Amino acid sequence: MTTTPAAPLPLLVLGQGRDLRTERGVECPGDLPAPSDPDLVARARAAKAALGDKVFVLGHHYQRDEVIEFADVTGDSFKLAKEAAARPEAPWIVFCGVHFMAESADILTSDDQTVILPDLAAGCSMADMAAIAQVEDCWEQLTEAGVADVTVPVTYMNSSAAIKAFTGRHGGTICTSSNAKTALTWALDEHGGVGGEGKVLFLPDQHLGRNTWARDLGGALDDCVVWDPHKPMGGLTVEQLRDARMILWRGHCSVHGRFTVEAVEAARREIPDVRVIVHPECRHEVVELADEVGSTEKIIKTIAAAPDGTAWAVGTELNLVQRLAKEFPKQRIAFLEKNVCYCSTMNRIDLPHLVWALESLVEERVVNPIRVDEQVAADARRALDQMLALPGETSKD
Ligand code: 13P
Ligand code: SF4
Question: Do the beta carbons of residue 302 and residue 296 sit within 8 Å?
């Protein structure tokens, strides 16, 4: 049998061109300082001092130490967006994180402020797993299957602004890893709650959706189906869709998806009295075996509050785990899985890019601004505001 080869995917050399089909552009105009420049730290300090209150630097917990050193505030994705919104006096917000976070900050800041992402190649592989055309197509098929009326979209912060806007247009909410339980409860409430008839279309992280449903809400795993955007009808039958309560988008984090059951078992074997703590983007079987599960903020707070001498095996991004080990030397902190590497896109933001962005601002030149289309931003804001209105909303743990 002969098959027609698929059209080759366009390959972009990092730092050149722009891929509009993914959630981030890839472009880095201008000359970057050399990573070997011994004056980088001094240059970053001088540029920040020259800019004073005109710039506010936000750093996600997964950023490199060399970048975190220059952050005015650190936090998880939504805490950082709220921090950005709380600084109306700073015309420039330099976002040291990934593209979807900078987009959310742009949506939540005023029109007079500009959000800057020091390297546009800092995307998120999970966010890239759901393209807006695929999501619109999915909704159309859910409508044809007669289930859209009882389905509420719940979209993880780790998604493009276009998908947040889709969520706003269809009466859904955004969630973070810290409030996913509240968001799901809210979404299901309209059709009889957890035991009722309503459904959630959970985008784009299947693991966070499954973990929240099964672990936090006590739902059955059998109630979850996975929508594969590359298959007709998501690879599901109408009957499967009708029976399901959670329609999970087939997306995952390429970093957290690599933590394994074997690694948890090895940690328990090798480290006496170890406590295993993981991010809810990890696979369900890993989360089930952990002692604690939570967002980056929760992981930090839990470890900070533990008595000296506690042993931890931590399943989240390596920059954060290494920093925790340095900050809490009286606790014994290990990385859960030896085969997991840094989040490569988070690591795109390095000191040369930060220096380049700051020094450009000193010269009144804005590089890599993140500007979400006005209509998209208005619809996305509805879904973000819905999250803020959730009972007891907190992005802090
Ligand atoms: P947090 O919101 O918990 O910081 O997580 C963001 C993220 O990208 C995790 O991979
Ligand atoms: Fe995206 Fe995973 Fe990196 Fe978080 S750790 S930014 S979810 S790829």
Answer: no
